[in-house]
Amino acid sequence: MRVLRGKVYFLVVVLLVTAFVSPFQSSDANAAQITTRSLQLLTGGGGDGGSLPAGTVNHRFTFDIVGGQTIGSLRFEYCTVASVVACTAPTGMTGTDGTTNATFGGESGSEVTGFAMGVRTANSFILTRVAASASAGDTVSVQANGVENPTTANYTFFVRISTYPTTDGSGTATDTGSVAASTANPIQLSGVMPESLIFCTGGTISAPGGIPNCASATSGTVNFNQLFSPTDTATATSQMAASTNALYGYVITINGPTLTSGSSTIPPMSPVLANAPVASTPGISQFGINLRANTTAVSTVAVGADVASAPNGTDLRGQPATNYNTVDNFKFVTAGDIVARSDNGGAGPTNAQLFTASYIVNVAGNQLAGTYATTLTYVCTPTF
After folding, report:
1. Domain ranges of the chain
2. Which single residue of 157, 212, 251, 279 could bond 207 by disulfide (Cβ 3.0 to 4.6 Å)?
3. Dist. CA 290–CA 342, nearest whole Å
4. Exposure string (b/e) for 338-354, b if CB count within 10 Å is 16 or more?
């Protein structure tokens, strides 16, 4: 206050205060923050991966109610930023894309239920239900199907979630919160499986875990278990493993002569009736093989083993051929006979299996002395 020439003047200052309120917060300034909220991107019905850019996928939202309230609707708004400023639709979520054609995908695991799809735009949708109370801590778990992701790869977008007591998302929101998600470049892998045949032979082949390991195959030099005798059967074994992805499987043939020493031979156990194998008979000169686990009826020592793993007609098809598949009966043909094939359940591809070839020798009392030997070659032929 100033006094001038006896007059009193008052100076009045009026302060005008203007408050700025962001467009997003104007209708829900008193809303509480939704807790434990998440958005999971799920593969859609057409097989598009959940985070595929422009993919038609499913979006599952999960969050907890903060306090007791009436809920009649939920609003989900897709934006380029979480909050504060006005919502701008993410790239590609405009026009008839985005959530325009979204459908309600269910509420499995939700404690707040009864929702159905309401109004939709390209970047928002409302789930509506008959307004009812919800308790603090109740979980909401709802899914929208047929959402078209933003079109940009490796792109982060946000969804603003609001709860309303009204059934159409109008009025002031009770609670709000945002979740973030990202599209991602699909990783496209390709590889080529070529035509495959794994085949090996040796004195022994190990099979750790039941799978033959050809790297473990030992030398193919095999000795019989004893001297040849007119009163006893000499035995020996070798092994082979095979697998193939050939559509029509494989056949394994044996090739080579019978045992010889100079000009003396031990006759092969050639079939005499219907190509069938024959039994071992000590005191008669004979040489033969089979691919079975034989018994002591043949020798003082049981010889051989059945194919491992056993054929099951699906992924394990290898089995001894008919004339090499009879316990205690043997055969040898010098002209390349089929001893095994992958035809259990029908000819076809098979995983690796281990075969054990059992060899027997009987000799007559007049068999000439000498070192008897032969070189046998097994050939595995796949048909693709």
Report:
1. 32-182, 197-382
2. 212
3. 16
4. bbbbbbbeebbbbbbbb
The residue with greater pLDDT, 7 or 341, is 341
Name the β-bridge partners of 9. Answer: 2
**Is domain 32-182 given the CATH code 2.40.160 in the classification?**
no
Residue reference for tokens 């199907």:
145
372 by Cβ neighbours in 10 Å (0-12 / 13-18 / 19+) ranks as buried
CA–CA separation, 355 and 288 (whole Å):
16
DSSP state of 311: P
- pLDDT tens column, 155-186: 999 999 999 999 999 999 999 999 999 999 98
pLDDT for the residue 30: 61
User: H or E stretch including 288?
Assistant: strand 286-290
Instruction: State the Cα–Cα distance between residues 335 and 317, nearest whole angstrom.
Output: 25
Q: Judge residue 73's burial from the number of C-beta atoms within 10 Å of its C-beta, 0-12 exposed, 13-18 middle, 19 or more buried.
A: buried
274 pLDDT tier (thresholds 50, 70, 90): low
In degrees, to the nearest 5, what angle opens at C-alpha 190 toward C-alphas 184 and 193? 160
With 90 as the cut, is the pLDDT of residue 214 above it?
Answer: yes
What letters, b where the CB count within 10 A reaches 16 and e where it falls short, cover 219-245? eeebebeeebeeebbbbbbbbbbbbbb
Q: Establish how many alpha carbons lie within 13 A of residue 86's alpha carbon, considering only the half-sphere containing its beta carbon.
A: 2
Residue 318 in this model has a pLDDT that exceeds 70: yes
Using one digit for the tens of pLDDT, what is the confidence trace for 319-352?
A: 999 999 999 999 998 878 999 999 999 999 999 9
Per-residue pLDDT of 256-273, as tens digits, reads: 999 999 999 999 998 766
> Can you name the residues that pair with 4 across neighbouring β-strands?
7
- Percent of the chain residues past pLDDT 90, beyond the cut: 85
Q: How far is CA 338 from CA 172, 240, 285, in A?
A: 84, 14, 23
